[in-house]
Design brief:
InterPro entries: Asp_de-COase-like_dom_sf, MopB_CT_YdeP, MoPterin_dinucl-bd_dom, Mopterin_OxRdtase, Mopterin_OxRdtse_a_bac, Prok_molybdopt-oxidoreductase, YdeP_MopB. Helices cover 36% and strands 17% of the residues. With 781 residues, it is an alpha/beta fold. The protein binds ligand MGD (2 copies) and molybdenum atom.
């Protein structure tokens, strides 16, 4: 029997275990195919358990439909030409169930659970308590969050912000679910207040892709559309696990294959979605054996991709020597590219033995891959966190772009670069100005539109913001969504940094670690999510989002929000702005809150490519933002051409007796939100504290399957000293991964990632290459 909450009529969480044994892990052997009937069953089951039958039906019929809401799962685009009924996947359905759950976290909940009690709870438990229904405050010295009125909450925040010596002592984080309207309003508030401290989740995600692509092609976004994938001859998928993280991509890949495309999967792990796939939307997918996705599975060593791309570059140049002009697209290179000669000189000298060592693959496979690239007339390169979260991520991605440029594979049908974004609107948030270093053109347009003076000094990104809070240079933290405490690296350092703040504010849908790791005063502001109906003064509002392929379209939530005390992110920003900036501030905050069309008018005036925004987003499938390389082979770089990048070759040798660890997602989580304790595709059930190790390493390091170990990371800091960090008690699971390379789940392993271990140029934490040693639990007594 559930307890009905009086105010909302929703069920209070009742069936989440209060504690569970994280080591009750069962391994069942990895599955080699993704989706299929099981996926549909899992999604329906999750929906029914957390939303009940009516909300499940209401939610799933509107998911990714023209008049419905954008899936809060990933940023993979919807297909055009009339979206299919039920364009959803298992993990999209889980993301919806997670948000549209009927469970609620009420003021009663906070009265029952002290902050110390909550701080001891596992993240899974916190995630599963339900939607937050009321604004609450934890006052200095108090041990419970208590209800607070919205107005009072805004006043407390404004007082803390005004008390700072400089606006630069405040940090305004954004996660990637925030709509374009909310993001635009938020950056306008922050810049009106006087700082560019706008770190976002992208700093930990595709920042390396942006940094690399801006140099290479002049714009930090992907150059292909979904349709392009269907025309491609060859699709590379490097460092991405689409079966779990972008499942709808698999149906597009299936179509591409039916049209004759060959797929090269470059990954240390044989991920289920890359090996075989059954489309749950199709009868043959449901009953048949599914199709093998990868034509070539390149089981690469962690961080070996740069060497792979450089080695392929050399083989392509040599093939061109044998048949001049057939491999290198001389006309494209001459007309559109700069720095080819330097690239050619460096690439001809690449040591192929080193390439084989760095990648761990054999020469025959390298030759086969080169042949595939040579014969392909249309090549697309897709990638995600396996490339972006390395020390050499930026040059690694540039090396991949070099390969495409050499063959003229940008700005034509069926070819191009495709960084596959994570959060459903992370790309849109950037377009709207969530960035600590927006260009002058954007800032001056913003100033001209509103008569404000935006600050010009660049702000802090995520890693710099943690350093600033740690060192007392920033003391107010506000998070627009996300889970800063747990998504960031070096958990102990980050938690201590947040605890030093005078105020932490979280705008959230659900409870997470960032609510219990708090400043002296802490406030939680509950916000509407993507699926919720958004009424402002009785009139229904819609928001817009941008997907991974620059398509912008509307999203309309339709479900009953968790309580009448939950506000939209736009409303929260506008109301805070009025309190903080005063009634005479030149931005018409109240008008924008009351009618989001007014926010969109401003977007049209300020954001490049968004003119006539209100009309264009209302087109049935929205509209596509301009992309000069894709649209007309124009490259807005410093040279005005596409630049071949020349960088010293880097890779990751494994020190003696050590392993290089990647931290990644299970099939049952959304970033720090843990949906469940199983990773079906990798054969893990009932727990998350596991480390996947090559069977030969298990033996060589003196362990056996099922041993419990501590993971100790070793990082050489600036002083030259080796710093150690420890994550305790993981179960060894022998797994198919290259010798010397291991894998374990994020966020349990974030404490192992040193704050200073970042990608050169993008400052992205190196979450995919942590040097560790294993220590037997028993040895420590
Ligand atoms: N269901 C679900 N969907 C999600 C998310 C989620 O947590 N759950 N998160 C969203 C977000 S924010 C993001 S950014 C994306 C993340 O999507 P992914 O990037 O697919 O996520 P990861 O789990 O980090 O997986 C990284 C993949 O890269 C491989 N890899 C690791 N290191 C290397 C390397 O050095 N070289 C190569 N070639 N491969 C490597 C890993 O084996 C793994 O397959 O997904 C988004 N979608
Ligand atoms: N070790 C390691 N660390 C990583 C990564 C990794 O691969 N390895 N990946 C990195 C990547 S790619 C990313 S993107 C970051 C993710 O970092 P974040 O985006 O900060 O983390 P999430 O876990 O996605 O945030 C989940 C929380 O967002 C809130 N939320 C959800 N929907 C909404 C909404 O609509 N509105 C509001 N206001 N709040 C909402 C909920 O309260 C929920 O608890 O983590 C990074 N950290
Ligand atoms: Mo991400």
């Amino acid at each position: 029997m559930g307890i009905r909450h009086l105010m909302t009529g929703r069920d209070v969480a009742k069936d989440i275990p209060v504690s569970y044994d994280e080591h009750a892990v069962v391994t069942t052997g990895a599955e080699h195919e993704a989706a299929g009937v099981k996926a549909v069953m899992v999604s329906l089951q999750r929906g029914l358990t957390s939303m009940g039958p009516l909300r499940t039906a209401a939610a799933l019929v509107r998911l990714n439909q023209r008049k419905g809401f954008d899936c809060p799962g990933c940023a993979w685009p919807e297909e055009h030409g009339g979206r299919k009924f039920a364009e959803f996947c298992e993990n999209g359905a889980k993301a919806v169930a997670e948000e549209a759950t009927k469970r609620v976290v009420t003021p009663d909940f906070f009265a029952r659970h002290s902050i110390d009690d909550l701080a001891d709870r596992p993240e899974y438990w916190l995630s599963q308590q339900g939607r937050i229904t009321h604004p609450v405050i934890l006052r200095a010295g108090d041990d419970h969050y208590r209800p607070i009125s919205w107005d009072h909450a805004y006043h407390v925040i404004a007082e803390h912000l005004r008390a700072l010596d400089s606006p630069d002592e405040a940090v305004f984080y954004t996660s990637g679910r925030t709509s374009n309207e909310a993001a635009f309003a938020y950056q306008l508030l922050v810049r009106s207040f006087g700082t560019n401290n706008l770190p976002d989740c992208s700093n930990m995600c595709h920042e390396s892709s942006g940094a690399s692509l801006v140099d290479s092609i002049g714009i930090g976004k992907g150059s292909v559309t979904v349709e392009d994938l269907e025309y491609a001859d060859v699709i590379l998928i490097a460092g991405q696990n689409p079966g779990t993280n972008h499942p709808r991509m698999l149906s597009v890949l299936e179509k591409a294959k039916a049209n004759g495309a060959k797929i090269i999967a470059i990954n240390p792990l044989p991920e289920a979605g890359l090996m075989r796939f059954k489309d749950p939307q199709k009868v043959n997918g449901v009953v048949g054996n599914g199709i093998g996705i990868a034509d070539e599975f390149v089981q690469i060593r962690l961080g070996g991709d740069m060497a792979l791309f450089a080695g392929l570059g050399r083989l392509l140049l040599e093939a061109d020597d044998r048949a001049p002009g057939t491999v290198v697209d001389r006309a494209f290179v001459a007309e559109h590219c700069a720095n080819f000669e330097a690239y050619e000189a460096q690439t001809r000298a690449v040591d192929l033995d080193l390439v084989l060592e760095a990648t761990g693959i054999d020469r025959a496979q390298l030759d086969r891959l080169a042949e595939m690239l040579i014969t392909s007339e249309r090549t697309i390169a897709c990638w995600a966190m396996g490339l972006t979260q390395h020390r050499h991520a930026v040059p690694m991605i540039s090396e991949l772009t070099n390969l495409l440029l050499m063959r003229g594979m940008i700005g034509k049908r069926g070819a191009g670069v495709c960084p596959v974004r994570g959060h459903s609107n992370v790309q849109g948030d950037r377009t709207m100005g969530i960035w600590e270093q927006m260009p002058e053109t954007f800032l001056s347009a913003l100033d001209a539109r509103f008569g404000i003076v935006s600050p010009r000094k660049h702000g802090m990104d995520t890693v710099d913001a943690i350093r600033a809070m740690r060192d007392g240079r920033a003391s107010v933290f506000m998070g627009m969504g996300g889970n800063f405490a747990l998504a960031t690296p070096d958990t102990h350092v980050t938690e201590a940094a947040l605890r030093k703040c005078s105020l932490t504010v979280q705008v959230s849908t659900k409870l997470n670690r960032s609510h219990v790791v708090h400043g002296t005063t802490a406030i939680i502001l509950p916000s509407l999510g993507r699926t919720d109906k958004d009424l402002q003064q009785g009139s229904k509002q819609q928001v817009s989002v941008e997907d991974s392929m620059s398509m912008v379209h509307l999203s309309r939530g339709s479900l009953q929000p968790p309580s009448d005390q939950v506000r939209s992110e736009v409303a929260i920003v506008a109301e805070l702005a009025r309190t903080l900036l005063g009634p005479d501030h030149p931005v018409p905050w109240e008008e924008m809150r009351a009618d989001y069309d007014r926010v969109r008018d401003a977007i049209a005036a300020v954001v490049p490519g968004c003119d006539d925004y209100n009309r264009k987003v209302r087109q049935p499938d929205g509209f596509q933002l301009p992309h000069p390389p894709r649209d007309s082979r124009l490259f807005p770089t410093t040279t005005g051409k596409a630049n071949f990048a020349v960088n010293p070759l880097e890779w990751i040798p494994v020190p003696e007796g050590r392993l290089v660890l990647q931290t990644l997602r299970s099939h049952d989580q959304y970033n720090t939100t843990i949906y469940g304790l199983d990773d079906r595709y990798r054969g893990v059930k009932g727990g998350r504290r596991v480390i996947f190790v090559n069977p030969d390493d298990v033996v060589a390091l003196g362990f056996s399957e099922g041993d419990r170990v501590d993971l100790v990371s070793e990082f050489t800091g600036a002083s030259g000293d080796v710093e150690e960090r420890r994550a305790e008690d993981f179960l060894i699971v022998p797994y198919s991964t290259p010798v010397g390379n291991a894998a374990a789940y994020y966020p349990e392993t974030n404490s192992l990632v040193a704050l200073d271990h970042v990608a050169a140029r993008s400052n992205t934490p190196v979450s995919k290459a942590v040097t560790i040693r294993l220590e037997a639990r028993a040895a420590r007594g």
